[in-house]
Amino acid sequence: MNTSTPSSPQQLLQLPLFPLQSVLFPGGLLPMNIFEVRYLDMIRRCHEAGQPFGVVCLSEGSEVRRRDTSAKTGSNDAPSGDGFAHEAFFPVGTLARIDDLQRPQPGLMVIRCVGTQRFRILRSAQQKFGLWVGDVELIEPDAPVQVPIDLAFTRAALQHVVSNIEHSLNQSPPQADGEMPLLQPYQWDDCGWLANRWCEMLPLNPALKHRFMALDSPLLRLELVADTLGQMGFALPG
Question: How many domains does the chain have?
């Protein structure tokens, strides 16, 4: 991965991209099991170089590269493309920093990543063996915005959820494999942080999660989360 020239410091060139059927938010945790050949080498190189890769949400296709079973196979039919199903992804993604990498067996990596900064894809290309790379423009981190009084219930509700998770983990046997899905320090008074953590936990369609993640306004993101909580039956202030 090459950084841009000093005249355009907010761009990254040839950033390795990892399309998923989920959305990574800044400050979010992403555990992954890596077994596809196209990603094993990419993750190894990123880890050794201390460089991030980009997580993007699929709009078409699947996380595992599959043959295109819809293609015609008659003797008079010419092959189309490389024979694999089409992949497409949304234009905004998040840089993923690899915090831990384990190799429990040959052909398998278990990694733990943290989302850092959002980016917008300027150009993307798929390489010979299916790996995607893109030239991307970094998006400025959310400015801190204090949670307004009329949205304070979203903070109280998430605090309640986190308290229940912590209690459950404390009651688990020592050998149980579990960790908090949120990284500390908790930023309860910040709209962007609060909205992002809710988006990670709520069972929302990935396309909707991407829409929320791509919003420039953290306050608007939290307002939409509040509307979603209301639609899902969370108690709103009277």
Answer: 2
Closest listed residue to residue 125, CA positions, set 8, 16, 1, 214: 16
Buried/exposed code over 60-76 (b: 16+ C-beta within 10 A; e: otherwise):
ebeeebeeeeeeeeeee
pLDDT tens figures, 64-102: 555 554 444 443 333 334 545 678 999 999 999 999 999
The amino acid that residue 204 corresponds to is: L
For 191, the domain range is 149-231
28 and 88 co-located in one domain: yes
Q: Which two tokens stand for residue 87?
A: 């992949």
Q: Are residues 94 and 14 part of one domain?
A: yes
* Adjacent-strand bridge partners of 98: 113
Q: How far apart are CA 73 and CA 151, in angstroms?
A: 56
- 134 lies in the same domain as 154: no
Q: What pTM value is reported for the model?
A: 0.84
